Amino acid sequence: MKNKHKIITDQVIELMKTSGNDWCSGLVNGNATPISLATGKQYSGGNWLILSVQQQIKKYDCSTWGTFNGYKKLGLFVRKGEKSTPVRFFKTSIIKNAENEESFIRTNKTYNLFNGQQVEGFEYEKPENVTNTEDDSVKIANSFGIDCGANIKNIDNNKAYYHIKDDYINLPKIELFESGVSYAGYLLHELAHWSGHKTRLDRFTEAGTSYPFEELVAELGATMLLNQLNIEKTPRVDHAQYLNSWVRMLENKPDSILRAANKAAQATEFLLSLQLENQEKLAA
């Protein structure tokens, strides 16, 4: 069987080549976030990306994923000839030696999953493509940025960017964007960059963090946040310049896409935790 990194990398490269700037729009909203049959929880990180891409490529309406035995326990069976999608789960355990000194060991296990549409008789509801209006998308994104504590300025109306040295986000005036949804997408993308500052997740100094890699982290992070906030994703015109470098990076380092997805998940979880913390303070 082909290496898991190679499989997902080839699929993402194909999406980039065929869909261009719009390559990951199908991962948002209408194509519901993948959910575990066993736990009912959403998948995250690399597993989220693997399963979301499968849903997009194979046009699955069902967002539930489970193992052969998981469906069997429900009296259901995977159709003959259906192929599974492998995902990997990591677990960190604490072990003690004879001197009672603790050390950490990380193990992983691969699970072969099937989408509910590959299972005979599995009932599911087609997810509704519920997104916020233009005005609400702007309000939600702005409130999210404020809750996170980001310093958001309007210094340069020519482009949106995150200034690492001075630790602020610049956004052009909202009327200069194609739409309110586009504005929200840019803000969430820059917030994903903002999370990597040395006082937060300290991502920029890590080995293997190139400029194209960080842009891919921010793109996936923004996609995850748009999903969480029910905001539509629109293509970023300025990302055309990154497509070729992303394709080259993925071809040379196939593990980059899953590493980027895991970093994006860390950024998303971090930002959402900041939002929750601020909301709890306000409610106290």
The radius of gyration computed from the alpha-carbon positions, rounded to a whole number of angstroms, is 20 Å
> What order do the SSEs take from the amino end to the carboxyl end, as H and E?
HEHEHEEEEHEEEHHHH
Overall helicity: 40-55%
Task: Give the N-to-C terminal Cα separation.
Answer: 54 Å
Mean pLDDT: 90
SS content category: alpha/beta
Strand order of the largest sheet: 1-2-5-4
Indicate the multimeric state. Answer: single chain
Percentage beta strand? 15-25%
H/I helix tally: 8
Overall 3D shape: globular
Number of DSSP strand runs:
9
Count of separate structural domains: 2
Largest β-sheet summary: 4 strands, mixed
Uncertain spans, ≥5 residues at pLDDT below 50? none
